[in-house]
Specification:
With 132 residues, the protein is an all-alpha fold. 92% of the residues lie in helices and 0% in strands. It has 2 helices and no strands. Helix 1 runs antiparallel to helix 2.
Amino acid sequence: MPVTAKLSRRFYETFGDEIANELVEWFNRVDDAYRSEFRELFEVHFSRFDAKLEQRTAELDARWERRFAELDAKWERRLGELDAKWEIRFAQLDARLERKASSLVKWMFGFWIGNFVATAGIVFGALSLLHR
């Protein structure tokens, strides 16, 4: 918003309208010239700032991408180690359960045979008593 230079009435009376108006126009031209120079200077500095900001944003993005990639690799490694540990533990548990199950089957088989022998003895004993 341009500011128009204004002079006092006494200035106009002392130097006359022509000189006073010429001075006001000159002030306005100088003001316009400074404004346009300032605008150009501002645009130059702003474009430099914008370029630096763009560069720094790109650097920051690259840094974050690298950190996320490192974190992802670290998590993958740790999850792999954890997976290997669990596989070993499950294999150990499976082997233990297999040993216990085979031991249990042996005991059950022995119990069944003992029961069968005892039941057969009772049945044959009862049959022999009946045949007498």
